[in-house]
Design a protein that fits this description.
alpha+beta, two-stranded antiparallel sheet, 6-stranded mixed beta sheet, Thymidylate Synthase, Chain A
C-alpha cells in the first residue's frame, strides 16, 4: 500500500482501533472496540475528494443526505422518495417497540410514502441536523440559520475565528432520534497573494462508526467545503477530521479484515456545477471522475 496515499491513514486508524481499542459495551448493546482522539487531514486543493476506494461508497446517497441536511429537513420521507434508506432504521425501531408490530423495512417505507398521517407520526426524526443547521431555536423564540450566517460571515469577514456551526443543541438532544455524531464544523480562510482566499475546514465528530459512518461523513464534509468555497469565491484547501470516540462494532470483523486487505486506489476528482446559493445544489450538480473502488462490504447498522 502506498504510504503517501491519504486513504492509508484511514486504514491505519482502522487497524489501530481494531487491534488496540478498548472493548466496551455501548448504547446499542452490540459492543465496540474504541480509541479516543484521532485526527486525519485531506488536501482538496487538487480537486480530489476523500471518497474511500477500499470499498465502494454509495456517494449519490451521501450527496442526497447532505442536500437533505441543507434543506433543513427532519423527516425521512424525502430521502425514502429518492431511494435512500440510511435514516430509516431509527424510526422503524421506534415503531416496532411502540406498536409491537414486526413490520419489515420495505413495508414501513411504503407506508411512509403512501400515508401522510403515518409519515407525520412515524417518519419524523425530531430536531436533528437539518433543524439545528437551519432553524436553531433561540431562548427568545427566534430561529437562527447557522449556514446562511456562515456564508455571510465568510464573505464579509473572512479572518474571523467564528466561522462555526453545530448541531449540539443541549436543550433538544432528548427529542432527537439520534444526537449529532458529526457535530461541529469550523472554517479558516488563508489569504492568497493577489486576492481571494483558500478555505479549509475542521469537522469535530464526537462519535464515529469508522466502518459505516466515516466514509459518508468525510465525503459530505469535503463536498460541503467545496460548496462553501464556490459560493464564497474561494479556493478549496484542507478538510481536517477530528474524531473523539472512534469505534468499530464487534460484529464488523469481516468488514475490517476485508477492507484492510485491500490496496487503496487514487481518489476521484469532484466536479461541482455552481448553484444560485448554498441551498440550491442538486444531485446533478455533482459529478465524479475516476472513482474506481473495490466492491462494497455489507455490514449491519447498530441502532
Amino acid at each position: 500500500m502506498p504510504q503517501n496515499h491519504p486513504e492509508a491513514a484511514v486504514l491505519d486508524l482502522m487497524r489501530q482501533v481494531w487491534h488496540n481499542g478498548s472493548e466496551r459495551r455501548d448504547r446499542t448493546g452490540v459492543g465496540t472496540r474504541a480509541l479516543f482522539g484521532a485526527t486525519l487531514r485531506f488536501d482538496l486543493s487538487d480537486g480530489t475528494v476523500p471518497l474511500l476506494t477500499t470499498k465502494r461508497v454509495f456517494w449519490k446517497s451521501a450527496v442526497k443526505e447532505l442536500i437533505w441536511f441543507l434543506a433543513g429537513e427532519t423527516s425521512i420521507r424525502p430521502l425514502v422518495e429518492q431511494g435512500v434508506h440510511i435514516w430509516t432504521d431509527w424510526p422503524l425501531d421506534r415503531y416496532r417497540r411502540e406498536t409491537g408490530e414486526t413490520i419489515d423495512r420495505d413495508s414501513f417505507e411504503a407506508r411512509i410514502l403512501a400515508d401522510d398521517d403515518f409519515a407525520a407520526r412515524w417518519g419524523e426524526l425530531g430536531p436533528v441536523y437539518g433543524k439545528q443547521w437551519r432553524r436553531w431555536l433561540g431562548p427568545d423564540g427566534r430561529t437562527h440559520d447557522q449556514l446562511a450566517a456562515l456564508v455571510a460571515g465568510l464573505k464579509s469577514n473572512p479572518a474571523s475565528r467564528r466561522h462555526i456551526f453545530t448541531g449540539w443543541n443541549v436543550a433538544e438532544l432528548d427529542q432527537m432520534a439520534l444526537p449529532p455524531c458529526h457535530m461541529t464544523y469550523q472554517y479558516f480562510v488563508e489569504p492568497l497573494e493577489g486576492g481571494g482566499g483558500r478555505l479549509s475546514g475542521i469537522l469535530y465528530q464526537r462519535s464515529c462508526d469508522l466502518g459505516l459512518g466515516f466514509p459518508f461523513n468525510i465525503f459530505e464534509a469535503s463536498l460541503l467545503l467545496r460548496m462553501l468555497a464556490q459560493q464564497c469565491g474561494m479556493e478549496p484547501g484542507e478538510i481536517i477530521w477530528m474524531g473523539a470516540d472512534v469505534h468499530l462494532y464487534l460484529n464488523h470483523a469481516h468488514l475490517v479484515e476485508e477492507q484492510l486487505a485491500r490496496t487503496p486506489r487514487p481518489f476521484p476528482r469532484l466536479h461541482l456545477n455552481r448553484a444560485a446559493d448554498l441551498f440550491s445544489y442538486r444531485l446533478e450538480d455533482v459529478t465524479l471522475e475516476g472513482y474506481d473502488p473495490y466492491p462494497p462490504i455489507a455490514a449491519p447498522v447498530a441502532v
